[in-house]
């Protein structure tokens, strides 16, 4: 019912609609209309009420909201099937469950909070209220080898959305971290669902430290928040919609033209290229210079006079001398 009321108000932006008209069109009592309006205001909607004129919608909430997010979407498929939760253990785990139940390509699981969010190598991902925690179900027309590069494609999408909406210039630390001035703003986790045979499905989790304060995160984490950097809150619905728009564009380009054009976009946004790093693999530490990524998405590091290739699933990458790129 809330969505129906919002649809009515949104059809006439800036204009008042009488409580009587709303009650007639939606078969509600005037008291029920008042109660719904009260609930919408509590949810963050800015609604003006005038005794003789009725109600008009002035602004949508900055916090995540299923109706507001749907209004912001500019995609063909991504986000059109939306699963919204106040609190969930993990959006990735829920998305995998829904994918096994044949959720559509582009379905999105989004939550205000996660209690058991995790990143690559099962590292804890703290997910308090105010962040953007979402997972996209993708059924790409790609081989498994190509689909493994979707983490890199998603990194480009997240960076471009953040740059558009904030004016900041974050970059990508291979393979899945989005950093600003050496601090992590966002992370990405792509996982395959089932066997990559006739039904090819991945879920891609995206977490952004958006409208939370740095003090809300563990002090030992090298993290940053957009709220602290900007001194204001972002519209999380617009941020989610922008990421989904760029991701859909990137996926279509990937399917049509291959990875080469997206690799160039990734390199333009990459952090650490030309800098010394340490790679931990199988108990051994390699020291070298980051040279970029190969056409197959592997990290290229020049060490001991040779070029070494590393895949994301087997290594940990860090800068040397205590720096974090």
What features would you describe in this structure?
- The chain is an alpha+beta fold.
- It folds into three domains: 2-59, Winged helix-like DNA-binding domain superfamily/Winged helix DNA-binding domain (Arc Repressor Mutant, subunit A, Orthogonal Bundle); 66-269, BirA Bifunctional Protein, domain 2, CATH 3.30.930; 276-319, SH3 type barrels (Roll), CATH 2.30.30.
- The chain is 33% helix and 27% strand.
- The protein contains ten helices and 14 strands.
- It has helices at 2-11, 19-26, 30-42, 66-72, 91-100, 144-147, 150-166, 226-230, 236-257, 260-269; strands at residues 46-50, 54-59, 82-88, 108-114, 132-138, 171-173, 177-180, 183-193, 201-208, 276-281, 284-293, 299-303, 306-310, 316-319.
- It has a seven-stranded mixed β-sheet, with helices on both faces. It has a five-stranded antiparallel β-sheet with strand order 13-12-11-10-14, with no helix packed on it.
- Strand 3 (82-88), helix 5 (91-100) and strand 4 form a beta-alpha-beta unit.
- Helix 2 crosses helix 3 (30-42), helix 7 packs across helix 9 (236-257) and helix 7 (150-166) crosses helix 10 (260-269).
CATH topology of the largest domain: BirA Bifunctional Protein, domain 2
For the report, how would you describe the main beta sheet? 7 strands, mixed
**What is the CATH C level class of the largest domain, in words?**
Alpha Beta
Strand content: 25-35%
What pattern of helices and strands is seen along the backbone? Answer: HHHEEHEHEEHHEEEEHHHEEEEE
- The counted number of beta strands is 14
Average pLDDT rating: 91
Helix content: 25-40%
Shape: elongated
Strand neighbour order, sheet with most strands? 3-4-5-9-8-7-6
- The stretches of 5 or more residues where confidence is low (pLDDT under 50) are none
Radius of gyration: 22 Å
């Amino acid at each position: 019912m809330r969505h129906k009321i919002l649809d009515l108000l949104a059809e006439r932006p800036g204009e008042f609609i009488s409580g009587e008209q709303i009650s007639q069109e939606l078969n509600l009592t005037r008291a029920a209309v008042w109660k719904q309006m009260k609930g919408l205001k509590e949810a963050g909607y800015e609604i003006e009420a005038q005794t003789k004129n009725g109600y008009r919608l002035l602004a949508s909430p900055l916090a995540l909201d299923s109706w507001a997010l749907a209004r912001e979407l500019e995609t063909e498929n991504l986000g059109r099937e939306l699963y919204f939760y106040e609190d969930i253990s993990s959006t990735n785990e829920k998305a995998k469950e829904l994918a096994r139940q044949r959720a559509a390509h582009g379905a999105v699981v989004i939550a205000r909070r996660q209690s058991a969010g995790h990143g690559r190598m099962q590292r804890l991902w703290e997910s308090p209220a105010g962040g953007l925690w979402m997972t996209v179900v993708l059924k790409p027309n790609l081989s498994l080898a190509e689909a493994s590069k979707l983490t890199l494609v998603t990194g480009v999408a997240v960076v471009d959305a953040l740059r558009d909406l904030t004016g900041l210039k974050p970059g990508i630390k291979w393979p899945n971290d989005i950093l600003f001035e050496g601090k992590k703003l966002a992370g990405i986790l792509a996982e395959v669902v089932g066997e990559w045979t006739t039904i090819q499905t991945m879920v891609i989790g995206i977490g952004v430290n958006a409208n939370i304060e740095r003090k809300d995160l563990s002090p030992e984490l090298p993290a940053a928040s957009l709220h602290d950097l900007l001194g204001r809150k972002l519209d999380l619905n617009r941020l989610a919609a922008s990421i989904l728009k760029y991701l859909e564009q990137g996926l279509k380009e990937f399917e049509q033209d291959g990875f080469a054009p997206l690799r160039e976009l990734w390199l333009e946004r990459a952090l650490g290229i030309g800098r010394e790093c340490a790679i931990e693999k199988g108990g051994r530490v390699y020291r070298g210079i980051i040279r970029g990524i190969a056409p197959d998405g592997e990290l290229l590091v020049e060490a001991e006079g040779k070029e070494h290739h590393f895949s994301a699933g087997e290594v940990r990458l860090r800068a040397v001398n205590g720096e974090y790129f």
